[in-house]
Amino acid sequence: MPYPASVAQEISLFRSRIQNRWFDDVTLRVLESILVSKDVQASIGIRSVLKQFMRSESLVIFCEIAEESLEIKLLCTEFLIRVFAVICDVKSCLALRYEALVLRDERATAHTWLQVSSKEWLTFAEHSLENGYYSIANQACEKALMSFRVNRVVHSEMDGVFDDVHVITKIKRLKDTALLKKSSHSVQALAESHLKQKIIEQSTQHLAPSFEAQKGSTRFRSGVMKHNLRRLHEHRRLTKLP
After folding, report:
1. Nearest-CA neighbor of 181 among 132, 128, 139, 143?
2. Which pLDDT tens digit goes with each residue over 93-104?
3. How many CB atoms lie within 10 A of CB 209?
């Protein structure tokens, strides 16, 4: 749909800043100004256009920074997460957040400042669960438990034991919820698939008698026509006799 000139100009400015790799607060403010004070229908259309553009552009960006330092990769990822959050692309936002956490987790052995806390994993698991990404939520809970246990080995003081029990209980409860919802979702999908198959089978069964009847009717009409033709030929033959 066509947008007012001012909106089109703002979108063009945002695209230009992203393509020129201006990953800063100014670019975010331009994006926010595009979406502010728009009616619902226009906002949905604009978000869809921006979502498509950013998903495509983010792939290009990650190819460009493949050989860059870890710090650059994390900074770019964090900026893109903020962009996707503004345009309400929850799926992309969570996917990038997970990749950033995993990347930090993998490098934490050599760089302790990158270590992902159990609280970070737990928060991510809660967000994933709220948005229906149950498998990711389950994986994040496992990461949270692992991070918590590693941290307790390093800091093995007895203070805060009751807090530790509370945290572990919370993580396990969230993990159980994620697994239950994942299982329920799988069962529901299976049930829907089975129901769809039954409907197709029933439709086929209903069509089969009709098709057979149609074939029988066609054969009957063909037989009648052949019989009438034979009688006509016989009548003509008899009329020609002296």
Report:
1. 132
2. 999 999 999 999
3. 9
